[in-house]
Each structure stands twice: as C-alpha cells, then as structure tokens.
Amino acid sequence: MKGFGQRFSAIFFILLSLALLVFGRNDNQAVESGRATVFDGFTTVLEVLSKPLETADDFVSWTQNLALVYSENERLRQENTRLRQEQIAASQLVIDNQRLSSLLNIREGHVTTIAASRVVSDSGSPFFKSVLINSGRDDGIRKGMAVVNEQGIVGRTINVGSGSARVLLVTDLNSRVPVKIASSGINVILEGDNSNQPLLNFLPLGAKVKVGDLVLTSGFAKVFPPDLPVGRVVEVSEEDGIRVNLAANLYRLNYVSVLGYDIASSPDAGVSAPETPAEQAAEEQN
C-alpha cells in the first residue's frame, strides 16, 4: 500500500509538471496570471517576514552603538580627569616657581643672537678641535661667547679678529661646559677629550645617571644660556666614565649662531653661597 501511494504521488507530480510545461509553452494567460499572483503572494510574505528581522538587526546595531558610546564616554571621562589633575599640578608648579623666584630674587638672563656665521674651515688637527667662522669683532662678537646651531651647542669663541673668530668645540680637550641632567637637575661638567663623545665629570656622590638621560646646559659660568640641548648619555661605565652623544653634529657644521648671554647680578652680590665642584670648574675655565 505504501509503495502504491509513493508511485501515485510521483505520477501525479510528473503529470502536473508536464501540464505546467504545456500551458507555459502555449503562453496561457491564466498560467501567467497565476504565476504573477503566486509571486505577489511570496513577495508579500517575504516582506512581512523580513520586518521582524530588520527590526531585530536595528536593535542589535543600536545596542552595539550604545555600548560603544558608553565605552567612549567612559574613556573621555577618565582622560578629562587625568588632564584636570595634570592642569592642577602644572598650575601649582607655576605658583611654586613664582614664589621661589620672588623669594630668591631670581632674574632671568637676556639671550641675543649676535651673528649668524658660516663655518669656513676647521683645525684639521686630532689634538685641537676648533673651527673658523666668518664673523668677528665688527659683527659684535667677543671672546667667550656661546656658539650653537639648530641642533644644540657647538662651542665658544676663543680668538676674535675683526672679521673672523676661532671657535673651540665642546669636544676639545680644553673645553669645559657646565651642564645638568634634565631628569634630576644634577649639575655636572661636560669635559672634552678630543673624542666624538665628551665625558661627564664632577658627579655628586650618590647621584645616578643612566643611558638615555637628556643633558642640557645649566647656565653656570655665564657663557651658555640654560636649557640648551647638549646631547644624551650613551655610556655609563667605570672604565670609560659617563659619555654623551652630542645633539649637534660637529663634523657637518655649515652655519652657526653666536649668542650673547647677559644675566643681571643679584643685589647681594657681595654675599655668595659656597660653590659646588661643578661651579668651581666652570669658573676656572673662564
């Protein structure tokens, strides 16, 4: 009985298919109308079924966007809190600096660019590191003035003619520049030894210096203004000492600037505090 039913169903669907093919080939208007009605019905059903799906999809997107907005809002709130704390700390530092400056009667120095000069020659000696520039006394240059370029400090004038000047580079054996470690404010002396990387000496007992520390001018000795870039510490060892890779490339000097640095003396110039070893070495250099 079951096999008869299956055979009957198969024969029925085959005959139905053949009938549809015959009617379709004859372009029967009723078949075309039926097809259109079926397609319209399917379209309507699909549209009705798609509405909940679109609604669900929109709800999921809205939920995701809401979570993203909440996360971004939380991040911005934390960032705002951090910036507010930094602003408060910075404002407090400004206030503290003003109070200390007032207490110590500190007067800022005046820095001027005396001349922009071209390097016309170097010493060419392994034992004397210097260059000759094409500006001199007629341009306002005097002995002992700081020489820099766009990268950092270069040296100081040691011999001045009417139209030229000799500049002793910071790498020279006779060069001593008062500097400081930017991160700690420790004052030390940058000593040239005719190598590409001068040494840091007169480090206070217990002071720590590490590779990568930024080195700036300290403003002592009244030659270099404070906070000019000097270089970074590249070596800390007991054998070779503490060496600095200079910010300025002294082997590719083309143009330099000669600076004048004037600092007002304190009203109590007659009473001075004891000098540190770094300050004493800087004074001996001058």
In words, what does this structure look like?
The protein is α+β, with helices and mostly antiparallel strands. The chain folds into 2 domains: 10-106; 110-263 and 276-285, Thrombin, subunit H (Beta Barrel), CATH 2.40.10.340. Helix content is 38%, strand content 26%. It is built from 3 helices and 12 strands. The chain has helices at 2-25, 29-104, 277-285, and strands spanning 110-122, 130-133, 146-148, 153-160, 165-169, 176-181, 187-191, 199-201, 214-217, 229-237, 241-246, 255-262. The longest helix is centred in the first third of the chain and has 76 residues, at 29-104. The protein starts with a helix and ends with a helix. The model is unreliable at 266-274 (pLDDT under 50).
Percentage of residues assigned to helices: 25-40%
Task: State the major sheet.
Answer: 6 strands, antiparallel, barrel
Specify the CATH class of the largest domain.
Mainly Beta
Instruction: Classify the secondary structure makeup into a structural class.
Output: alpha+beta
Adjacency order of strands in the biggest sheet: 1-2-5-4-3-12
So, CATH architecture of the largest domain? Beta Barrel
Give the count of helical stretches: 3
Overall number of strands? 12
Give the total of domains: 2
User: Which outline best applies?
Assistant: elongated
Q: Per DSSP, what share of the residues sits in E-state strands of 2 or more residues? A: 25-35%
Query: CATH superfamily of the largest domain, please?
Result: Rod shape-determining protein MreC, domain 1
Return the string of H and E elements: HHEEEEEEEEEEEEH
